[in-house]
Structure formats: C-alpha cells, structure tokens
From TrEMBL:
It holds the Pfam family ChuX_HutX. This is Heme utilization cystosolic carrier protein HutX. NCBIfam families: HutX. It comes from Candidatus Avacidaminococcus intestinavium. CDD domains: ChuX_HutX-like. The gene is hutX.
Length: 166
C-alpha cells in the first residue's frame, strides 16, 4: 500500500472515528485490511497468523460469542459457542451439531489476525478479526454481552490473557 493511500486512510479514521472500517474501505476503494492495518496500536494489535490454532482452541472455552461473516451483500451474525475444529481436505472444519456456528475455513488463505478494541454502534467492542491474502475479512469473533449489553467479564479476561500470550 503506498504512502498516499495510507495517509488518506488515516485521515478518514480521524474524521470518522466511529465508522466501521468496512465503510471507510468502500469509500476509498481499498481492502478492509488496508483500513484496519492503519488503526492505532491502542485500538489494534496484529498477531502472527500462525497463532490461528491456538486462538481457535482458546475461544472454544469462552461461551457465547458473536461470529460475523460479511461480504458485499450480507452481514451474517451468529451467536453461539465456537465449536472445536479439525483439519481435513485443506480446511479447518468446525464440529457439527454443537453450535449454530458451523462451516469450513481455508486457513491457507489466512494472512492477518488482529485483536481490535473499538467502539461500534455506540458501544465498546472487543473482537478478533481474521483477514485473507487479498485483505478481505474472512470472519470476526466479537465477545459476548450480558443482558445489560456489557461484555461478559470472564470473556474480557480470557481475551486479554490470550492477546498478551501471543
């Protein structure tokens, strides 16, 4: 990404601090990763994509989260526990029949993983976000919330411990 594009992204992030990175990416004609990668270190910490297995193992113990997959036409939000997974036929495959979260992840296409703490929809949000080699979002795991709409404290602790361990 060239310096001028990065400067435009950073300007947009300053002007629109509560905007979703996907919105800024669409406005500027860049990938979502191009925007997320320009978030400040207080908001975003990238970790090695090789940490995928450790992350997926840890989040299975967190209880209900929100799993988000987005493409140009759909934002799918699935609430549930992250099921265990195994590798087969070139994919990381979620165990079936234990959670509404199901499917197959092409880990060979994974390029970036980051922990993001950013306001969304007027509330502080904590997430782990996964991006492919093209800079597109593969999926995101957002911490769950209680009936009071606040993050579940045990999940915040687990999130912080996992982030610190990577």
């Amino acid at each position: 990404m060239n310096r001028m594009v990065n400067e435009k992204i950073r300007e947009a992030l300053v002007k629109q601090p509560n905007a979703f990175p996907t919105m800024i990416a669409q406005e500027l004609g860049v990938s979502e990763w191009a925007v997320v990668s320009q978030l400040t270190s207080e908001v975003m910490q990238e970790v090695d994509a090789a940490a995928f297995d450790k992350i997926m193992q840890e989040v299975t113990n967190w209880g209900e989260i929100t799993f988000i997959v987005r493409n140009g036409s759909v934002i799918a939000e699935i609430k549930g526990i992250v099921p265990q997974g195994t590798y087969g036929r070139g994919y990381f495959n979620f165990a079936h029949d234990v959670s509404p979260i199901s499917g197959h992840i092409n880990v060979a296409n994974l390029a970036h993983i980051c922990f993001v703490q950013k306001a969304a929809m007027g509330m502080e949000s904590l997430s782990i976000q996964f991006f492919d080699k093209q800079g597109d979002s593969m999926f995101k795991i957002y911490l769950g919330r209680g009936e009071d709409k606040k993050h579940i404290l045990a999940q915040i602790d687990a999130y912080n411990k996992l982030q610190a361990s990577l």
